Amino acid sequence: MLEGVLIAESLRVGAELAGVPLRLTRVTRVEVEDAAAGQPRQWTLLDFAAEEADAEALAERLAACLAPTGGWYVNYNTAAEAFVVFAGRVFRYPRGQDPRGRAEGRRQAQAHARALGIPEGQLDWQD
Description:
Layout: E1 2-7, E2 23-31, E3 42-50, H1 55-65, E4 74-77, E5 81-86, E6 89-94, H2 99-115
Antiparallel strand pairs: 1-3, 1-4, 2-3, 4-5, 5-6
């Protein structure tokens, strides 16, 4: 089972996330102090779970649904890989036993996030 968090406000207007069964595990509304330019200060966090076999398909669909502006991403993990998904771009890297691969994959995803203007405080995903 993979687990992750989708911020509802990150979805592009008119986007539809379909074709991958997701189980909603929690919904939380939060106020964010370090919102990036173009991000609202209140977010709706949708904690979800899905089958690990759907990880790649989910990444592709999320990349097509996320807003290209506002500095948004979604992250989730399988037992073996971390996924960090931006509009039109997916980063995936190994978890656990390959510390160099993990560090390099995380570095690349964070560099992309910084180029989009995502604040440092939001680069805190777990892998």
